[in-house]
Amino acid sequence: MIAGMAPVLEEAEWCFVTGADPALAALALASFQEDEGLSLILPLAVVRDQGLAVDLTMRRIKLSVHSALDGVGLTAAAATALAEAGIACNMVAAYHHDHAFVPAGDADRAVSVLQALIAQHQGG
Length: 124
Prior knowledge:
Blueprint: E1 7-18, E2 30-34, E3 37-43, H1 44-49, E4 58-63, H2 74-84, E5 90-93, E6 98-103, H3 107-121
Antiparallel strand pairs: 1-3, 1-4, 2-3, 4-6, 5-6
Helix pairs in contact: 2-3
């Protein structure tokens, strides 16, 4: 899967928030109910409009390869490569694709790191 991956960097900026009005879940890209409360991934504009704290703006990199829910190693390889480059990432696995959320300021460098990972797995 790694050799066939094509990372696509999205322009939009996102924020991970918690403690927000649960009605905002309808505007969220994703949500997850944790023991401590509801976590949402919201567009930066929504976070600002709601007066919520902006801890960190992130950009999404879609790992454009159809990954199986029982596939092994794709998110681990991507997260490890980014970590080794000193780039924080939050991986979100969805039904069709995996997504890496990275700090907005590191997004272009993160794509380069992922492209180098692909090249390694393609034998280049």
